[in-house]
Amino acid sequence: MGKLVWCLISSNNRGATCYRHTNYGLAGGSGIISFRNYLIMIEVNDMGNFRDLHTLDEVSNFIHKHQLAFLYITQPNCSVCHGLLPQVQALMEKYPKIALAKVDAVEVQAIAGEFSIFTAPVLLLFIDGKEYLREARIVQMDLFEEKLDRIYHHVI
């Protein structure tokens, strides 16, 4: 889900009015559209929100597209997964340069073999395509935050 920002800009320099909306099912990107006497600037920012990935190719592309990529691997009937996700989402707001994605291990079964996943949830941080941090099942959030903070501030 992306954050949508669109601005209506008058072509006769009367100013601009911008609107912000969240939780749109849109991928990141931007563009400008000309309509009558107005220019409409549209931007969708998907940083700070978990993007759902549905194939192993999408996972691989996501990891290699972003310098800092975080995967939250979950399963539908996992109570720990569902309880931990809001805590991880809140924590990740402190790290705006980390791209976030979520993968359902039941839907993308090949992820288990690709990343040696034996349980859920699994939290993976990649830097330049390489795994730097892994936590699984019972995650102590304070220790996870310390590790993440150390890595993040060293890279950024």
Give an overview of the whole structure.
- There is one protein chain.
- The chain is built from four helices and nine strands.
- The chain is α+β, with helices and mostly antiparallel strands and 156 residues long.
- The strands form two sheets. Strands 5-7-6-8-9 form a five-stranded mixed beta sheet, with helices on both faces. Strands 2-1-4-3 form a four-stranded antiparallel beta sheet, with no helix packed on it.
- The chain is globular and about 55 Å long.
- The chain starts with a strand and ends with a helix.
- The model is unreliable at 21-27 (pLDDT under 50).
Task: Quickly describe the structure.
The protein has 156 residues and is an alpha+beta fold. It contains four helices and nine strands. The strands form two sheets. A five-stranded mixed beta sheet has the order 5-7-6-8-9, sandwiched between helices.
Give short descriptive properties of this protein.
156 residues, Glutaredoxin, five-stranded mixed beta sheet, 40% strand, globular
Helix-strand blueprint:
Blueprint: E1 2-10, E2 16-24, E3 29-35, E4 38-45, E5 50-53, H1 56-65, E6 68-74, H2 79-92, E7 99-104, H3 110-115, E8 122-127, E9 130-136, H4 141-155
Strand order in the sheet with the most strands? 5-7-6-8-9
Based on helices, strands and strand pairing, what is the structural class? alpha+beta
Which value, in Å, is the CA radius of gyration? 18 Å
Q: Share of helix among residues?
A: 25-40%
Strand content: 35-45%
Q: Based on DSSP secondary structure assignment, what is the total number of beta strands?
A: 9
Overall structural domain count? 2
Structural shape: globular
Q: End-to-end span in angstroms?
A: 25 Å
Encode the helix/strand succession as letters. EEEEEHEHEHEEH
Full CATH superfamily name of the largest domain: Glutaredoxin
Q: Biggest sheet, in brief? A: 5 strands, mixed
Oligomer: single chain
What would CATH call the architecture of the largest domain?
A: 3-Layer(aba) Sandwich
